[in-house]
Amino acid sequence: MADEKKDPELPTPPEAAADKPPSASPAEPLKGEVSRTDSPGAGVSAAAPAKPRTEPPAPKPDNPAAARPAAPPPKVPPRVAPKPGAEAAAKPEHKPAVASAPAGPPDPPPPADIAAPVFIMRLHDALPGAVTQLSYWVGDWTIIVPAGRLLDVGRFLRDDPATSFDFCSDVTASDWPPRPQRFDVVYCLYSTRLRHRVRLKVRAGEGDPVPSVTSIWPAANWLEREVWDLFGVHIVNHPDRRRILMPEEWQGHPQRKDYPLEGPGELLMESPLDWLRIRTAQDTRDIE
Questions:
Q1: Which of 126, 135, 234, 286 has the fewest Cβ atoms within 10 Å of its own Cβ atom?
Q2: Residue 32, by phi and psi: left (phi above 0), alpha (psi -120 to 50) or beta?
Q3: pLDDT tens string 164-213
Q4: Can you give the residue range of the structural domain that contains 179?
Q5: Within 10 A of 132 (CB to CB), how many other CB atoms are there?
Q6: Number of folded domains that form the chain
Q7: In a domain, 126, yes or no
């Protein structure tokens, strides 16, 4: 009998393949589980650990200093009462020094390395002994002369070709009560032709006559009136010596350092009625 031939395996129809359960595959370990291997000597491996749970940060206080614990107060050693007289002996009494009033400007002499200008040398040669002091300060020259030689020096400074001080730009004064000759009368001179300057200074006491220089420099007219009005310098031979800023009946001279800050009145007269009597007489003259 002929050998029976085995029928070849026919392919499984798709419908049957769908009903067939899938072939088993090695299971993958799940997270958090322990996987074992059948190989000898293989250890046990754990899966990746889960992320730790984070807590929300604690709220910060508004005032950081309030969260800190208060520091304990410092220990103060007990005060020991000093023995009588010990404090006075340890701490001597300090009395502040009282500054004395300046007696006047320093009027420093010129340095040895600075030569006097030509117009000063000409004045020394023409009028010997007329200049009592020569001063130099911050680039300015000052010639100090006595009041009796003021007109002679002024005429020379105006007329000499080497000096030619043809313009008196200012006349002012300063008051130094501690000094016997309390007033410094200063004449600021300028040469419009030679372009140089100099200060001419005269010192005078209370009531000492100072001659007017209006005959040499007519521009000094109102300037000398101001010096008389505010300082009371006794300027003589002035063509119109009267007050220029203050009323004619005003008491005292406001630019003096001993003039009262409260102004005129009973402080300058023994009785307030004297001041009222002067004002009444002035009003009567104005009406007449």
A1: 286
A2: left
A3: 999 999 999 999 998 999 999 999 999 999 999 999 999 999 999 999 99
A4: 118-245
A5: 12
A6: 2
A7: yes
